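Take one record.
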Amino acid sequence: MPEEFLQYIWQNKLFTTNHIKTVEGDRLEIIDQGRKNTDSGPDFFNAKIKLNETTWAGNIEIHKSASDWQKHEHTNDKAYDNVILHVVETADTTITRSNGELIPTLILNYPEQLKHNYQKLINAQTWIACENQFHKVDPILLQLGFNRLMIERLETKTQAIVEQLEQNNNNWEETFFQLLARMFGFKVNALPFELLAKSLSIQTLLKHKNSLFQLEALLFGNSGLLNQQLLGDEYYIRLRDEYSFLYKKYKLKGIEGHLWKFMRLRPPNFPTIRISQLAALIYQTEGLFSKILEIETIEELKKLFKVKASEYWDTHYNFNKPSKNTQPKELGDTAAHILIINIIVPFLFVYGEKQNKHHLKNRALGFLENLPAENNSIISKWAKLGVQARSAFDSQALLQLKNYYCESKKCLNCQLGVKLVSSV
């Protein structure tokens, strides 16, 4: 069995504890199996055992085979000198500390059913490992785990924000703009949108905040989409002329137009439409980042993102190609929800953490609880298993469960998996 399974057995004290002896023949009592170590070094620390009549306190190391001690080069590593017990499944050798002292070894004995339960999960070929046994789990157990899963997912997202913040010398406004722009590209055009935002400082854009036309000229010009053809309609030519002036004024360097993807996208999601909507958001919002910090309700947030592309795009999806489908291109509720979930919430959370403003962290979680659950294939499959996401808070937790635990079959780190493995 893998080491992680043996660690799980040890951590949960699912092994035989009565009348146990070490390989060396000494009586052994496990007083405290210790705490799981998530950093480098021995697997468990602060353990306590009684060996014959002597009580020992220290660390525990667990291996499949005793000889793994040498394979992992622990013999001369002083970090392992405080190991008081070596727990193994197979005792094929004796092991010592760096000074040559013998470390007692215990062969771990546990119910065979536990191994069978674990292998059944690991070998499953279903959507999630426990799909065929899911009915055995109390749904309340899953609900209780949502908080932990949601915080885990937020921490993953906030780590990306922290890294970007460091790259921007702790400039919150610039970092927020870059990540917001990336999300305007959603999955398909996330990268070119991020590159566009990094090529064009938010401070430069704010100098032209009172002119939607100039904001579009800057964004479309630096996107490379005004270089696609020499001739075009009046609006296209005006944008290009305006950008030519601004390009020289700010010594701009744009990105390549070929980076943008249009294929297999619904026309309302074309990057041309999204760029115009981003310009509109900057144009109509006074102090975008500070505004986000002030907003207290979902209704206000959704109102903020009720932006539409400029009038030209009422009759176009691409430059110089009028469309038969003429209508305002407004950012829809679904898109607004995606922006709130993936940018506003984690940004508020990390800003609240960094600035010691815990009310912002609570507000971020409140936004998730007041947004409808996401509608995607993963959430639909959870629903078929009887798990209904009541809000975006729940759906984000379920996405974390599926993507981080189920995909990698980390069943021993999951409350549901642990429940199923432990049943005898």
In short: Residues 139-167 form the longest helix (29 residues).
